[in-house]
Specification:
This protein has 8 helices and 14 strands. It is α/β, with parallel strands linked by helices. The chain has a 5-stranded parallel beta sheet, with helices on both faces. A 4-stranded antiparallel beta sheet has the order 8-9-10-11, with no helix packed on it. A 3-stranded antiparallel beta sheet has the order 12-14-13. α1 packs across α7 and α2 packs parallel to α3. The chain is elongated.
Length: 226
């Protein structure tokens, strides 16, 4: 799963951004300040960073410099200022792109995916047992025919696709779905969504080969995937 660091002090913006990004299959870690971002960077690796320029204990330019020195990943600035000097300063410090607030969600997602492609971090397409998932276009096909999934079904599928070698606990899946839905998702709801997803993507839902049950733990992605 693509790991994104979000450095943003506005809690409302941060919450909405995390919901948006997680609904697209990204894993997001939030830092509300420069110092918090620094601590997180020492303990975790990321694929891309979204950084607000204005922070309560410094600025995003410092965070960008630190990220580039530590992890050399794409950095996209989020800024309320569209003046040329701020943009030029950010780009000169190594930022890969910038987005002016208030931003359009689809445009931000497109810029993130473009930065990931350029850096070689993105896996746009995934195929397993005749199931084809293109996370760039959001298209899912089974044996060549398009499969239409609900937003939560698609989100659930992306979690499996982005974690092909990991056993996913029910608790982990519940957290992912809750974030994407913006509402409470209980254990029974998860069971229903697993069942619905299997009915749409498996050759035989009663004998699944794509989403496998690991008894007592959770689920994992099966089959041969590319």
């Amino acid at each position: 799963m693509v790991q994104i660091l979000l450095v943003e002090d506005d809690q409302t913006i941060a919450k909405n951004l995390m919901m948006l990004l997680r609904s697209e299959g990204f894993s997001v870690t939030h830092a509300a300040s420069r110092s918090e971002a620094s601590k997180i960077l020492t303990a975790q690796k990321f694929d891309l960073a979204l950084v607000d320029i204005s922070l309560p204990d410094g600025n995003g330019f410092t965070v960008c410099t630190e990220i580039k020195a530590e992890q050399k990943i794409p950095v996209i600035f989020l800024t309320a200022s569209a003046d040329e000097s701020s943009v030029v300063t950010g780009l000169n410090m190594g930022a890969d792109d910038y987005v002016t607030k208030p931003f359009r969600p689809r445009e931000l997602l497109a810029r993130i995916k473009n930065a990931l492609r350029k850096s070689g971090q993105a896996q746009a397409a995934f195929e397993i047992n005749g199931l084809y998932v293109d996370s760039t276009s959001g298209i899912v096909r089974k044996n060549g025919s398009e499969v239409f999934l609900s937003a939560l079904e698609y989100r659930l599928l992306l979690v499996f696709v982005n974690n092909p070698k990991i056993i996913l606990s029910r608790e982990r899946l519940l957290d992912e779905l809750w974030d994407a839905a913006g509402e409470f998702v209980n254990d029974n709801t998860l069971t229903v969504y697993i069942k619905r997803l299997r009915e749409k993507i498996e050759e035989n839902p009663t004998k699944p080969e794509i989403i496998l049950t690991v008894r007592g733990i959770g689920y994992r992605l099966g089959g041969h995937h590319a």
